[in-house]
Design brief:
There is one protein chain. With 67 residues, the chain is mostly beta strands. The protein has a single domain (2-62), classed as Beta-grasp domain (Ubiquitin-like (UB roll), Roll), CATH 3.10.20. It has one helix and five strands. The protein has one helix at 23-29; strands at 2-6, 11-15, 37-41, 44-46, 57-62. The protein is globular, with a radius of gyration of 11 Å. It starts with a strand and ends in a 5-residue tail after the last strand.
Length: 67
């Protein structure tokens, strides 16, 4: 399982880990895409194509834009 927390939204959940899973897959599981959020895995900022492992802790940081 991967523990996921969406910062600033009060969302915490567990996502079932699957072999070959990437950061982009985790973002989709919690309702984000790579243009609307960035992620940290175990405290390190990562790219969308980086792998995630069973037992990882992912923090999703929603991107805010406007003018």
């Amino acid at each position: 399982m991967i523990r996921v927390k969406v910062l600033g939204r009060g969302i915490e959940k567990e996502v079932e880990w699957k072999r070959g899973m990437k950061v982009a897959d985790v973002l989709r599981e919690v309702g984000f895409n790579t243009e609307s959020a960035i992620a940290r895995v175990n405290g390190k900022v990562v790219l969308e194509d980086d792998p995630v492992g069973d037992g990882d802790y992912v923090e999703v940081i929603p991107v805010v834009s406007g003018g």
